[in-house]
Fold this protein.
Amino acid sequence: MSVTITVNGMPRTIDVDPDKPLLWALREDMKLPGTKFGCGAGLCGACTVMMDGEAIRSCQTPVGSIEGKAVTTIEHVATTAIGRRVSEAWVALDVPQCGYCQAGQIMSATALLTQIPAPTPEQIDSAMSGNICRCATYLRIRAAIAKAAAA
Amino acid sequence: MSAAAHLDRRGFLTVSLLGGTVLAFDACVPLSAQGVGAGAPGVLNAFVRIAPDNAITIGAKNPEIGQGIRTMLPMLIAEELDADWAQVRIEQTLANDALYGPQVAGGSRATPVNWLPMRRVGAAARQMILTAAAAEWGVDVATLTTERGYVVAAASGRRAPYAAFAARAAGLPAPDLATVTLKAAKDFRIIGTAQPGVDTPAIVAGKPLFGIDTDLPDMVHAAIAISPVFGGTIKTLDDAAVRAMPGVVAVVRLNSGLAAAGGADDAVAVVADSWWTAAQARRKLAITWARPAAGGDHATASYERTAATLLDAAPRHDLYRSGDAAAALKDAHRVVTERYDYPFLAHATLEPQNCTARFADGKLELWAPSQAPAAGRKATAKALGIAPEAITIHMPRIGGGFGRRLMNDYMVQAALIAKAVPGRPVKLLYDRADDIRHDCYRPAGWHRLTAGLDANGAITAITDHFVSFGQDGEPAIAAEMSPFEFPAQLVPAVHYGATYMPTTMPTGWLRAPTSNAMAFTFQGFLDEVALAAGCDLPDLLRRTLGAPRTLPPPERGAAFDTGRARRVIDAVCTRASWTGGRARPGARTAGKGRGFGFYFSHAGYFAEVVDITVVDGAAIQVDKVWVAGDVGSQVINPLNAVHQVQGSVIDGIAQALAGQKIEVVAGAATQENFGDFPLLRIDGAPRAIDVTFVPSDAAPTGLGEPALPPVIPAIANAVFDATGRRLRSLPLRLA
């Protein structure tokens, strides 16, 4: 079955099982591997993308359920004003260690600042608690969000 | 010319002009001559390429798991080469231990092993460029110097890029690496400066860097079903429905590595045109599993019962004896005896295990996220019955190691699957349940400790009965306890002994292996001993350490220096304004507690202070951590050094507080995702981690691990301070 969604500003029509999670449609069918597979259960946030301005877990989102929606992934997030500030803060503070979770972290951070331009430390922790960083870059994630918010 | 033929040399550099334009240095350094890692095999080939436009490319030879080695090792070369770091390009080498020497991300060894060899490569290359420049310009080499990739004649002000001397340098004899002059520390421009990770911009941009991102023409994907019971095998398999599914390419039986060689296989892989298809198809396999001959009934509960019984008896194996511990305990003014234990743990790297393999014409090519690719090559060659030289191994960036990828089970599995679909690259990817249920676990352990004190509060005797896993009197991997476990060498009468139970669970090294468990056990226990001695733990340690001196080294590992230990203990106490952990008026009612821990591992000395709050008498929140560490004379990349310490500390907090525990029922692990094997989340991280490095005269050592162990007992000790309750079992739980 064919599904049409807008990905990173471009309408994409893919011939795919509608039950296939958006994560795998992005990685396998659209060759956008920046979005990562971590748990397949919506528990780690590595697969986070933005859909119509909100952070969603792409591993829990059947691609057939978002027909006509607009999705932004890590590959494109820096073309948005908030995404660029977040990405720049991430580089400036050298946030990543292994780097595997960081796409999801950046997407969640961008969604947070889209909704709350100047979050409190508690709001940052609350919004980011769905994203696991196994290397524990959490102190820098907090600082980078604060920096991006102040930019 | 075979590199191996030069093992007897003191080290040499080869220089050549690639394609007539690019100046190439390849250095071979017998690592055993460096005074570290005695007996380390092979030679080192750390390449430097200088292009006609003066662009400098430096090879990064070790696996990158987030420890920052792709940045740090090239910094060492660039420093002595006097390159402009901002202009240096980094290129990952292949895995080839014959060319590059040890390429292991493990044991926090890369810093001590490479500190001198990498610098010598850069220094020798610079020296040859200077010699060539002196000849070209007809001046004495002593009148020339270098500046960020340029040769400079100080007197005349003449300058030219390194590349201008490529042809002449390529014709020069190379200097002896063992005698090449290195910079004095005061002249470092790159070493000791904060350098962000070389891949940070690409990570932030979502570029495909990781093993899981490997994408090759004609590639197919594999999902795997491994016997859930460790050691079980395939009894029956009906794959007719799966083979008929669109997109399925093959169904392959294989040995995951746990089945007996030559017997029945214990895993089934489904190969398909996408991983999603393969994972869906795998669910439709009708497999019945045969239980293993032994261990099919193993369970955490029975391990615990057996361990409790064994602890009551005498240890079956001696680890360390000094003096007469039994007599000393009889004569002691006070005796403290307690039991400590900790569970099996998974590694739970965020990037699940994966490997891409292509088998064609008797040769194998691997894209392997491995911390130990040389060991993987050996294991894979054996499993496929091919020569190790027939295997090419690429080293993609790795989404977390923590020791999991020192085991190469998934690499061998990918290779076996690839052999069944020759000519096509196959990417094997575990899902999260595969990853947690088929790990090589940090082994659980149980201890019965006893210490004797004299009337002055000095420790006169210590004993430990350690119960863990192994067979035939030998501990399982990562169940080894050092005979010198602190404070064995500092107490007059000591008896450490061990008893090992059989297990079918595969075990392996988890970041700061053995230390992550022993620190909790011994530093927690010593906090109790300090209380009995009427002092706090830092004071008990100072008293026990005595005068600054170096103790005899263990058979493997670094010698312990009491002075270095003392300095980090003092430094962290100063930094945290430690005034004695106990009896601060009003502290307990506010739920506030403060604890201390010290540990020496991986040649690094770390002392840590933790402030906690106990919320509603149940939840333990770490507020702030202070760390003082001594990893030698030079912190190479201070930015990444702080990152490694902070990450290690939070990793330790996770082991203490997140509720991590792998349990086994009927021979199979029961946990399967982050719901039942939780990792620490951002709201569990402390508000601040204060890091102080205490320099010493020792050569620099690694930072991937030694900051982790002390935080675990420091938290347990803080819980006692806050509540009066002593928690002697990991994970820590108040309610």
About this structure: Strands of chain A lie at 2-7, 10-15, 48-51, 54-57, 70-72. The longest strand of chain A covers residues 2-7.
